[in-house]
Amino acid sequence: MKKILLILSVLLTLSIASQKLEKIIIAGPAANVSHPVFKMIEDGVLKEYADKVEFKMWKNPDQLRAMIINKEVDFVAVPTNVASILYNKKQLIKMLNVSVWGILKILVRDKKVKHIEDLKGQELVVPWRGDMPDIVLRAVMKKKGLGKEDIKLIYVSNPMDAAQQLIMRRADNILLPEPATSMVLRKTKSFPVSIIAPTVFRGIDLQDEWGDIYNREAKIPQAGMAVVGDMIEKKEIVKAFEEAYTKAMQWYKTHKKESGELIVKYVEMFNADAITDSIDHVQLDVKRAIDSQEELNFFFNVLKEDNPKIIGGSVPDEAFYIKD
User: Fold this and answer.
1) What's the pLDDT tens digit per position in 252-307?
2) What DSSP state is assigned to residue 319?
3) CA-to-CA dists, residue 19 to 6, 13, 25, 90, angstroms
4) Are residues 123 and 63 in the same domain?
5) 313: how many CB neighbours lie within 10 A of its CB?
6) How far is CA 73 from CA 16, 159, 265, in A?
7) Residue 126 and residue 153 in contact, taking contact as beta carbons nearer than 8 Å
8) Do 95 and 110 belong to one domain?
């Protein structure tokens, strides 16, 4: 009997080993939505399921789309509208959770500026034309009856370009996501940049503007984690990932200093103190995507009204969501 049990134990071990993946690849931007992944990698939380867990950074949505289309990744940190576009283009992608509900601020040189209408007659520098910061801004402007003749939008390729314009006094107002906002505020106060940089303020919170104009909570389902390709069918791994990401996000929010120190190991362009600062200025709450469907549908319908292409033509159906 003991020999039989031993043989069964060995066979079970061999079976588990044969199912173990060589590698799990997670992709994401440098932003806060990806930061819990670094904690997961540090702690080796998925080692039961793969020999190696690797993070690939995408620098723009086009690069992200290429990674997914070419089946280079298993999980992605993604803007929700980009996930919708890919889903509507018949890519194998399902939304797992929403974790970023507020990340967009407008930095201003005039501390009296509190609302988007206060920028009438001025210029606003905006990164990533046609992507999340821009589409939220335009939705708010449209609802408030503001057009390009009221606020001149100056587009740049990325947040760092926008930040540079403000720091060098070529712009008075810039739209940024965190942690770029906190990076700018740190930089403008540090020597020798402080000699030329203007005093700047977190003037406008786009989430507050959204809440006011739509009579909703001041939160927008902007980004989260999605599952890609064959990984969708690996339900045990997906569940383990979901639980690990939620725990890592909680650690990230409650260990701000340590989080800053961890993140700069993976994203060298960041400053640890700025990452620590940014955590207080981002709405982070991991919520299952299927449980966020009402918020997502509202958001997608607003975007669709402005331009259906922003979500890939239509609001995703039930199959867009991981359900179990």
Assistant:
1) 999 999 999 999 999 988 999 999 999 999 999 999 999 999 999 999 999 999 89
2) G
3) 20, 10, 16, 28
4) no
5) 12
6) 22, 25, 21
7) yes
8) no
